[in-house]
Structures are given as C-alpha cells and as structure tokens.
Design brief:
Blueprint: H1 5-20, H2 25-36, E1 41-42, H3 43-50, H4 54-66, E2 71-73, E3 82-84, H5 89-117, H6 124-149, H7 152-161, H8 164-172
C-alpha cells in the first residue's frame, strides 16, 4: 500500500472489519481510503494507493455505490469519475443502518410473516416462537423508524441521555404500548 502509516493501519483495520461485517475485505479498504481522503479519488488513484487491480477497484466502487456509501463526484477538467464518501458521519450511519435493514431485517420479517400464515402446519410451540420473534423484530423496526425520523441534533441529544431514560421510564410507571399482532 502506498499510504502513510496511520492511514495504512486504518485501511487495513477497515478491511479486516469489513470481512467480519459480511463485505469483501477490499471493499472495506476502498471505503476507508475514501473516508480518509480530503479529495475525491478516481479508480486509478485507488488502485495505486491500495495496490489492487483496476477490476477489483471497479467492483468495490460499484458495491459501495449500491450501498449508497460512496458518491460519484465530477472534478472540473477531468474525464475520469471521482469518488467520495458523505461528509456527515450521521448520514453515513443512517445509510448503513437503512441498507442493512433492507437487506437483512425486511426479508426476515417477510419470511416470518409467511411462516406465520402457514401456522396450521406448525406445532404450537414453533408457531408461538415465530410470532414472538416477528413481534420483537417489528417493535425494534418501529423504534428504528421513529429514530430515523428524528433530526440529527435531537437524536444526538437523545443518545447522550443513555441509561437516564430508563430512570425516567421507571418514574413514569410500567406503561407499555400494545404491540401489533
């Protein structure tokens, strides 16, 4: 890699973590490189910096664009496409969560609902577990959607309250809204 030592360490770490998060190591490294870069980079700069093939860079950029984590940026006087990450860290986190929800949570809910509709073919215990899991995931999804609607500043304030919110809930009482059935 043709990078300063701290950049190299960050990029290598992100590549390693990417493989644990279910993405290709190179995709994680490309993202990390773009994340740290003050300027938008073209595919040739990425290949040179990371020591990867042009096709690897192209495939990684395509995947990152599909996840909406990398943006195409036109550079005056340049014919090559340049790429960058959003500047707002909260936008990046929100995008990651939304994309993971679309790819992982939504299909799981669809499957659980379909299985629940076939309930007669399940034993009572299995059916109850599927219903319980669906309700829990729907509750978490509703919470996520409520948080996603919050302005970033309000979300940050809410997060800084942390466990103090549990104390408020204890003082208010044991009210629990009915979950969807």
């Amino acid at each position: 890699m043709n990078l300063p030592p701290i950049h190299r360490e960050f990029v290598l770490h992100f590549g390693e973590m990417g493989s644990r998060w279910g993405i290709n190591r190179t995709v994680g490294q490309i993202y990390a490189l773009l994340f740290l870069s003050a300027e938008a980079l073209n595919a040739d700069q990425i290949t040179q910096s990371l020591g990867i093939s042009r096709s690897n860079a192209s495939m990684g950029l395509k995947e990152l664009r599909a996840w909406r984590l990398v943006r195409l940026k036109r550079v005056d006087g340049e014919r090559k496409d340049h790429f960058t990450t959003p500047d707002d860290l909260w936008e990046i986190v929100r995008t990651l969560i939304e994309e993971r929800k679309k790819r992982e949570i939504d299909p799981t809910l669809t499957t659980l609902r379909a299985l629940e509709m076939q309930g007669a073919s399940l034993d009572a215990y299995s059916e109850a577990r599927i219903v319980e899991l669906r309700k829990m995931i729907e509750l978490m999804t509703e919470f996520y959607e409520d948080m996603a609607r919050l302005e970033t500043e309000k979300l940050i304030r809410l997060m800084t309250y942390g466990s103090r919110i549990a104390g408020v809930i204890d003082k208010v009482g044991g009210y629990l809204p009915a979950t969807r059935s």
